[in-house]
């Protein structure tokens, strides 16, 4: 297997498809669909969901660390952290994946790399959400902690962060959905997530309709209800305020 | 005036025959609910051509809702509204209450103009564009025609040099005068004034009311007015209707209502607003 | 790390390869601009449909929005690359076959449809934030729905939707890097991968690649901020672009006056 063209073995060149062959076969083949479904679903659970869940965890924790660093570090340092985060946020995950893949080839598993890259990338988004949440904590709360002579660490831990976190839950949900839909980018580092698995199944048979439709429907089936749920949560929180 | 029993069986108003004595606005058994909250119930009244009627009453009594129903900004929950004898939202056909065609509603709506409490000028247009937009694109007037009319209206409201200004650069009083010009540019038969001075600084209220007095004096436009300015109501209107709890408590000539109200509720309300 | 020993030589390689890199950069820029324009058109069309009072327009718009943003960009791209051309293969008589034969165009469509669906939500949401009084005034003036949207509501919603559209455009630029897997399209990421061979991964991907993508994203952001300032100025909020850009004494930003006092024309920087 040539690492140069990691993705190429999975992907057919669509311009090279034999038209005569296509016309002899049906547009949709139920046998292929039924046969392909288990392996696609397996890849979905083993890779796509795994990356999304662990990536979201990293984003949730690291994002908070970044936000607190930006708000508490001395000016020049905070500035560096802020622009580093901006830099990661405003550059493509695909390039970041390829970069990390080659930089750490042989030392880290591609799947682990994927989880870390997605986690860090979305942490930079979450840090903005946390920052807004922290800044929306009323001034009176800070003044109250001073009046009670609470230590800075305790102030953050017991007063500021708990209040800031509440309103950030829907955003975390939305970014988790975003990350979920970005997981097929892992195809560029050869992680066998759902779309890669779909390609791997369909390419040798020259069957594309079934595998990509199944993959798309699984994405829809998973992301739409989650989005509705997050939306409801958002509205509930908005009422509570 | 048709009684509710007549209305249930026959067409209460002779449709489409707008003679001089057809009321310009007619409410028949009008009902308006917001959810479970009944704002107007069994409301019947008529406004004659050229008549100026002021609606007074405590807030929440449904006065503004009446104007908004006439402007089709709210949906009618029950009953009928006729403009020049023609049904505005629903009509009776074969004993059933059916919605009128969109086309008819639009045609009737162009006869009605409204000035809002919050002015609602379009911030993305100049003063002149605010006034000429609808005459050109809704009534199909030529641009020259509309612009000429707009300038004379701006003259009338005392803002001849503000044609190219942006609404946000004007004071509240100036914005409201532009809004009046905008409504008049459509040559409405009916002008609805919804608390037009409530959002203004006290010192400019007089200017705006004077302009409206002049409109009342020089034109034959029918006016339906909701206001807390009792002096203005008294000067301008032919009839005052006192509302409470979605019903007309008392109606009559302004002189009579303001000096010698017969209903206890009216006395109390006027006492409160006039500070007696 | 080789990078720190060989970097002067890398710049020589970079110079030799600059043509190919610039070609790739140009492809990426084209994908972002054409994809962005298509996304904008789709966003406005679907957004207006989703915000219209007619169920016949609203329902199909909702379905299209949910499908195009619900399935991942990559899945959408593969649908367009592998499944859409089948239509022409089964029906050789169909016109416009050229569309599916250009993998570049298919990339543009994938980006446009996916981010256009996200944008439609932004457009619809911004229509609802235009004050209710503005909608009512248009009804009072008997304006038709297309008329009120075109002349009154959209121009005001425009200023509100620009920040979301900016984010989406940056997302689209970032998403365009997946064009790397499209056969026959050599975007900037694909060329970076070629540059990796004579240099190394730090130099090609981190030093050249990510920095250039970052700069492109900044260009988009600055451009859109200028658009936003212009849109706000047109609504009578905030200074004009010229006032912002003029180095002369800072123009006084005219606040909208809630109390309704007549505004003094700001004289600073007003040499129009």
From TrEMBL, chain A:
Cite the SUPFAM superfamilies for this sequence.
MetI-like
Q: Which UniProt keywords apply?
A: Amino-acid transport, Cell membrane, Membrane, Transmembrane, Transmembrane helix, Transport
Output the CDD domains linked to this UniProt entry. Answer: TM_PBP2
* InterPro entries in the record: AA_ABC_transptr_permease_3TM, ArtM/GltK/GlnP/TcyL/YhdX-like, MetI-like, MetI-like_sf
Biological process (GO) annotations held by this record are: amino acid transport
| Subcellular location(s) of the protein | Cell membrane
User: In which family does this protein belong, per the annotation?
Assistant: Belongs to the binding-protein-dependent transport system permease family.
* Protein name listed in UniProt: ABC transporter permease subunit
UniProtKB/TrEMBL annotation, chain B:
* Annotated keywords: Amino-acid transport, ATP-binding, Cell membrane, Membrane, Nucleotide-binding, Transport
Which residue range or ranges hold the ABC transporter domain? 25-270
Q: Where in the cell is it found?
A: Cell membrane
- Is the keyword Amino-acid biosynthesis assigned to this protein? no
What GO annotations for molecular function exist for this entry?
Answer: ABC-type amino acid transporter activity; ATP binding; ATP hydrolysis activity
Record's superkingdom? Bacteria
Annotated region described as Disordered, given as residue ranges: 1-20
- The answer to whether UniProt assigns keyword Transport to this entry is yes
A GO-annotated cellular component: plasma membrane
Membrane topology, from the record: Peripheral membrane protein
InterPro entries (UniProt xref): AAA+_ATPase, ABC_ATPase_HisP-typ, ABC_transporter-like_ATP-bd, ABC_transporter-like_CS, Ectoine_EhuA, MetN_ABC_transporter-like, P-loop_NTPase
Q: Which NCBIfam families match?
A: ectoine_ehuA
Q: Which family does it belong to?
A: Belongs to the ABC transporter superfamily.
Q: What is this protein called?
A: Ectoine/hydroxyectoine ABC transporter ATP-binding protein EhuA
Recorded source organism is: Nesterenkonia alkaliphila
Automatic annotation (TrEMBL), chain C:
Q: Name one GO biological process term.
A: amino acid transport
Which SUPFAM superfamilies does the protein's record reference?
MetI-like (SSF161098)
Transmembrane segment boundaries: 25-49, 70-90, 96-117, 157-182, 202-227
User: Per the UniProt entry, what species is this protein from, by scientific name?
Assistant: Nesterenkonia alkaliphila
A Gene Ontology cellular-component term = ATP-binding cassette (ABC) transporter complex
Name the UniProt record assigns to this protein: ABC transporter permease subunit
Domain ABC transmembrane type-1, by residue range, is: 25-224
Q: How does it sit in the membrane?
A: Multi-pass membrane protein
What are the UniProt keywords, alphabetically? Amino-acid transport, Cell membrane, Membrane, Transmembrane, Transmembrane helix, Transport
The record's similarity note reads: Belongs to the binding-protein-dependent transport system permease family.
Tell me the NCBIfam families matching this sequence. HEQRo_perm_3TM
């Amino acid at each position: 297997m040539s690492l140069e063209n990691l993705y190429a073995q999975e992907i057919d060149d669509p311009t090279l498809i034999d038209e005569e062959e296509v016309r002899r076969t049906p547009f949709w083949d139920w046998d292929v669909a039924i046969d392909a479904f288990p392996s696609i679903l397996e890849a979905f659970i083993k890779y796509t969901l795994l990356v999304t869940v662990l990536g979201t965890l990293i984003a949730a924790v690291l994002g908070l660390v970044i936000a607190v660093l930006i708000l508490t570090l001395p000016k020049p340092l905070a500035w560096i952290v802020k622009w580093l985060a901006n830099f990661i946020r405003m550059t493509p995950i695909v390039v970041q994946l390829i970069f990390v893949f080659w930089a750490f080839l042989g030392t880290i598993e591609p799947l682990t790399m994927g989880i870390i890259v997605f986690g860090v990338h979305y942490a930079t988004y979450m840090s903005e959400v946390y920052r807004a949440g922290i800044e929306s904590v009323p001034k009176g709360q800070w003044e109250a902690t001073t009046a009670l002579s609470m230590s800075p660490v305790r102030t953050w831990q017991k007063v500021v962060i708990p209040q800031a976190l509440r309103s950030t839950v829907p955003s975390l949900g939305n970014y988790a959905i975003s990350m979920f839909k970005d997981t097929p980018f892992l195809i560029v580092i050869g992680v066998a997530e759902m779309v890669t698995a779909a390609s791997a199944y369909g390419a040798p048979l020259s069957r594309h309709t079934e595998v990509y439709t199944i993959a798309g429907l699984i994405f829809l089936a998973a992301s739409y209800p989650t989005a509705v749920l997050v939306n409801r949560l958002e509205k509930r929180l908005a009422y509570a305020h | 005036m048709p009684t509710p029993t007549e209305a249930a069986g026959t067409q209460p108003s002779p449709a489409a025959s707008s003679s001089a004595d057809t009321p310009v606005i007619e409410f028949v058994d009008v009902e308006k609910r917001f959810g479970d909250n009944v704002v107007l119930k069994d409301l019947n009244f008529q406004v004659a051509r050229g008549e100026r009627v002021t609606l007074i009453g405590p807030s929440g009594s449904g006065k503004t809702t009446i104007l908004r129903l006439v402007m089709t900004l709210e949906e009618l929950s029950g009953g009928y509204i006729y403009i020049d004898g023609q049904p505005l939202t629903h009509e009776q056909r074969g004993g059933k209450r059916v919605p009128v065609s969109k086309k008819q509603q639009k045609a009737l709506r162009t006869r009605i103009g409204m000035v809002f409490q919050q002015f609602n000028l379009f911030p993305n247009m100049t003063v002149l564009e605010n006034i000429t937009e609808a005459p050109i694109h809704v009534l199909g007037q030529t641009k020259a025609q509309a612009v000429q009319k707009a300038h004379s209206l701006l003259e009338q409201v005392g803002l001849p040099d503000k044609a190219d200004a942006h609404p946000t650069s004007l004071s509240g009083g100036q914005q409201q005068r532009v809004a009046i010009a905008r409504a008049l540019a459509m040559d409405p038969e009916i002008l609805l004034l919804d608390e037009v001075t409530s959002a203004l600084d006290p010192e400019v209220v007089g200017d705006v009311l004077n302009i409206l007095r002049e409109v009342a004096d020089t034109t034959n436009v029918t006016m339906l007015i909701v206001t807390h300015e009792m002096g203005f109501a008294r000067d301008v209107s032919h009839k005052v209707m006192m509302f409470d709890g979605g019903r007309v408590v008392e109606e009559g000539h302004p002189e009579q209502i303001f000096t010698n109200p017969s209903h206890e509720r009216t006395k109390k309300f006027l006492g409160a607003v006039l500070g007696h | 790390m080789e990078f720190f020993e060989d970097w002067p030589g890398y710049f020589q390689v970079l110079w030799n390869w600059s043509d190919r890199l610039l070609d790739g950069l140009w492809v990426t820029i084209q994908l972002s601009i054409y994809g962005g324009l298509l996304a904008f058109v789709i966003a406005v069309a679907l957004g207006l449909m989703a915000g219209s009072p007619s169920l016949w327009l609203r329902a199909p718009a909702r379905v299209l929005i949910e499908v195009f943003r619900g399935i991942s960009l990559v899945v959408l791209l593969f649908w367009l690359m592998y499944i859409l051309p089948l239509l022409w293969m089964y029906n050789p008589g169909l016109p416009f076959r050229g569309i599916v034969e250009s993998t570049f165009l298919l990339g543009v469509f994938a980006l446009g449809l996916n981010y256009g669906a996200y944008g439609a939500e932004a457009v619809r949401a911004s229509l609802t934030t235009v004050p209710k009084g503005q909608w009512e005034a248009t009804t009072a003036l008997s304006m038709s729905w297309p008329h009120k949207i075109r002349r009154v509501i959209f121009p005001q919603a425009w200023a509100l939707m620009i920040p979301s559209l900016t984010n989406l455009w940056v997302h689209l630029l970032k998403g365009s890097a997946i064009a790397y897997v499209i056969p026959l399209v050599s975007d900037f990421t694909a060329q970076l991968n070629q540059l990796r061979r004579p240099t190394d991964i730090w130099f090609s991907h981190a030093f050249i690649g990510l920095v250039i993508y970052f700069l492109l994203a900044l260009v988009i952001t600055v451009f859109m901020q200028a658009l936003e300032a212009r849109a706000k100025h047109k609504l009578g909020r905030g200074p004009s672009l010229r006032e912002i850009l003029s180095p002369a004494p800072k123009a006084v930003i005219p606040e909208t006056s809630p109390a309704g006092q007549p505004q003094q024309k700001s004289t600073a920087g007003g040499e129009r």
